[in-house]
Amino acid sequence: MTSQTQRPHEADTSLERRGECEFAVSLRGVPVPGGRWSRGRQGSGGGGSRAFPERPPEPSPGSSGEAEPEQEGEPSLRLPAEGLHPIFFDKSPLLISIQSDPISTYVFVHHTGDCAQFVAYYIFRIAAYQEMIAPLPCTAIAAILFRRFLLMALTSCLVWNMIGSSAAVDSKPNILLFLADDLGIGDIGCYGNNTIRTPNIDRLAREGVKLTQHIAAASLCTPSRAAFLTGRYPIRSGMASSSRYRALQWNAGSGGLPANETTFARLLQQQGYTTGLIGKWHQGVNCDSFDDHCHHPLNHGFDYFYGMPFTLLNNCQENKPPDLDVALQAKLWLYSQIITLAVLTLTAGKLTGLISIRWKIIACFTLAGSLFFISWYSSYGFVQYWNCILMRNHDVTEQPMRIERTTSLMLKEAVSFIKRNRHGPFLLFVSFLHVHTPLFTMTKFCGKSRHGLYGDNVEEMDWMVGKILDLLDKEGLKNHTFTYFASDHGGHLEAQDGSAQLGGWNGIYKGGKGMGGWEGGIRVPGVFRWPGVLPAGTVIDEPTSLMDIYPTVVHLAGGILPQDRVIDGRNLMPLLQGRAQKSEHEFLFHYCGSYLHAVRWHQKDSGAIWKAHYVTPIFHPPGAGACYGKGICPCFGEGVTHHDPPLLFDLSRDPSEAKPLAADTKPHFGTVVRTIARAVEEHRRTLTPVPEQLSLYNVVWKPWLQPCCGTFPFCWCDKEGDSTQSM
Fold first, then answer.
1. Is 221 marked active-site?
2. 157, 221, 287, 708: which one is catalytic?
3. Residues 574-623: pLDDT tens digits?
4. Side-chain half-sphere of 708: how many Cα atoms within 13 Å?
5. Inter-residue contact 278 to 249 (CB < 8 Å)
6. Cα-trace Rg, the chain
7. What are the strands, taking DSSP E only, across 414-541?
8. Where are the alpha helices (DSSP H) in 163-262?
9. Is 21 a catalytic residue?
10. pLDDT per residue over 517-558, tens digit each?
11. pTM of the prediction?
């Protein structure tokens, strides 16, 4: 008999030989000796839910070994010669084969939703079939076994259906991924915030599964999102930096997610999904020319893209202080002023006769100073035009973007994508621009929260989530959609405007954005919902990673993970469904750029979670809990402290990392540190050298790579017009 790939909605089966004519069947964990669930001959009826006829066709008298010929459009009744006895299921027969070879003994249930109906009917009719199968070798024993134990299978099917397995276990569900930008784990209600209103994100947690140890692979946007998309630590793809530039700086840089990296969007696209990305990308655009789009979302498995190829900046909004490379810009301004002052001094000295110098030399100084100023001001002076743009697929639609209507445009695009692809399957990655500064918020949300502009922006994002979830309900897609919400990393503690806090709150956890090891920079919300498949109201306190989304959605889509590279993520479905109690992660490695700062060890036998810090940032001012004097904490150099032996914390007892364990007070200190050190060595052996995408050359602005909706440098357009509608 031809074996077939088991589908998620079919019965789980296993076969174990117990004796000459007796075999064990396990239907969802319930043993049923005497048969094997398998596929028989399928008629013209196809799949789906069907009803049994009141009475199956009876065998014609005198049939004793020859199968009856098949009628056009009707399934045949096969008699004992081949040992095939159909129980009719509309036009798809369920075959009972009890042959002399006991290994061939099997029963097929067409669909699990009809399993209970079939077993009940078979128990009712088995007496009529006993006379037909009695003459066969071994069949008397088999018939008794079937009659005795099929009631157990019926019970199993009924229980299975009661717990919802027949509700919506699609073989290929729609997949909806929400990823916030810079959101702290303490900013939403389901994680303990009772002052910022997030009813829609809270609804997801209430109707699904909430993770309390969900960890980002990096504490900054670009590397964290690269890991999310590829299921791999960013150092494996070259998206981890050894310089102070740890994220992409320009749309016109040449760095980005390499073309040889395989995203989950690419694998789902291969499985027949329509894939879309709405919102922030920040993984690069071009490599060698302004339109090669080597790093573009459409070159990484997305069928549709609408959003920012970069990220929000203060530069995107008028009258905001710039936040792109502020320290470097200050130096460049200073050097330009010095050169200007020198030229003016030389000119005045020449005119007054106080300085003897040739006009040609003054002209050379003037030309050099002008070229220096133009070289840097042509980029930093027009950040709003170069970085603050919107694209639809390969086309620039707004340059610069009109930030006051961006929220409405993003929501409109997400809604439109779902409506266009409601017949599925689809993957929609909603990559929010919220809650990154400058926190532009629509008028109807301004001043509504108790936490100023930041709280308003969080509540606006939650409203967007609610609009999209309501659309799923309206389109009847809720039960057929695997939904996920998270943040790319922790809240930005240093984001302030005077006394006003413009960054997120990371709850009890130390540190924040940019800090590679401290929990506040990497522990993020993680919420899943899939009604009927994931148990509602569940909380899981096991270490998981944003990288786990990659193998999880590939598994749900029926895809196969790449075999030519290391995948660091793990499939979360057993944990989310309660079929597994422990995370598959034993060690998680916490990088700051390309520098390993900390390692987490999940000691499964004891339940302890150890964390060793090899490097920590030096807070400024001392004891402040962040690097307020620098804007973001560094990864190396004079701004960090190296620890040997490492700082060791037991996160299961001290999640806020307030009390490092001392070697002389903790009996197992040395054992834990040595175990983690061996894991680091093994991990490093799995790393292979790759080009660094965030090198200085790759992140600097290159005018020939600048996306432009006109003829460079005349890049401005508004193709959206006033097409936004009130949402």
1. yes
2. 221
3. 999 999 999 999 999 999 999 999 999 999 888 899 999 999 999 999 88
4. 15
5. no
6. 32
7. 426-431, 481-487, 496-497, 500-501, 523-529, 538-540
8. 199-206, 221-230, 234-237
9. no
10. 999 999 999 999 999 999 999 999 999 999 999 999 999 999
11. 0.78
